[in-house]
């Protein structure tokens, strides 16, 4: 697996992720900070022609590509341990979101707005790959991703811990701004095409929609996630 782009690499360096090797474009400018951080961690650096970087990725690498270990994810037992004796936590469950760019953007929104973790199912979900990492701008290194066999398993688990399950559903009669988010809240986002699946939607304690005033009937799911997570962050009690 690789991580590319300066911001993503910096976030990787600031995390506990194992970086195996760095490839940096010869004569690249403004790379001193990254080179210093790589040196402090004793990570091997190869200064290479741009053609080498293009072989590693066809995307916008900004002059640096790093080989990394597989990103650690967590399971249902880990989620259970995390939830024990939690008085306050905000989680995002993703139901059927398969596009890696949307996944990465949602991760970035979640990290920026103080969501404590993201839960996805092992099947029918976007993969964690270099595109996900890049789109998240490295935020994926700062927020736990829980992979579970079935999303319903995680829903039953959080319900046992008295979480309120809120589903984003464009058919809902309630608007986002009319809601008050509990300190223990799960927000569920479904795919753009199908929305939240029926079995999952039935387990929601409440649903809501984002009011739209233009001619387009829906938002991109990652944009919707940003709007929703911002509203959740506004209601978060600090202390």
Task: List its traits.
alpha/beta; 60s Ribosomal Protein L30, Chain: A; Alpha/beta knot; 2 domains; 6-stranded parallel sheet; 4-stranded mixed sheet; 33% helix; elongated
Structural write-up:
It is a single chain. The longest helix is centred in the C-terminal third of the chain and has 14 residues, at 221-234. It is elongated, with a radius of gyration of 19 Å. The chain has 239 residues and is of the alpha/beta class. The strands form two sheets. A six-stranded parallel β-sheet has the order 7-6-5-9-8-10, sandwiched between helices. β5, α5 (100-112) and β6 (117-121) form a beta-alpha-beta unit. It contains nine helices and ten strands. α4 runs parallel beside α7 and α5 packs parallel to α9.
Lay out the secondary structure.
Elements: E1 2-4, H1 6-14, E2 19-25, H2 32-40, E3 45-48, H3 50-56, E4 64-68, H4 76-83, E5 89-95, H5 100-112, E6 117-121, H6 130-135, E7 145-148, H7 151-160, E8 164-168, E9 184-190, H8 198-201, E10 206-208, H9 221-234
Parallel strand pairs: 2-3, 5-6, 5-9, 6-7, 8-9, 8-10
Antiparallel strand pairs: 1-4, 2-4
Helix pairs in contact: 4-7, 5-9
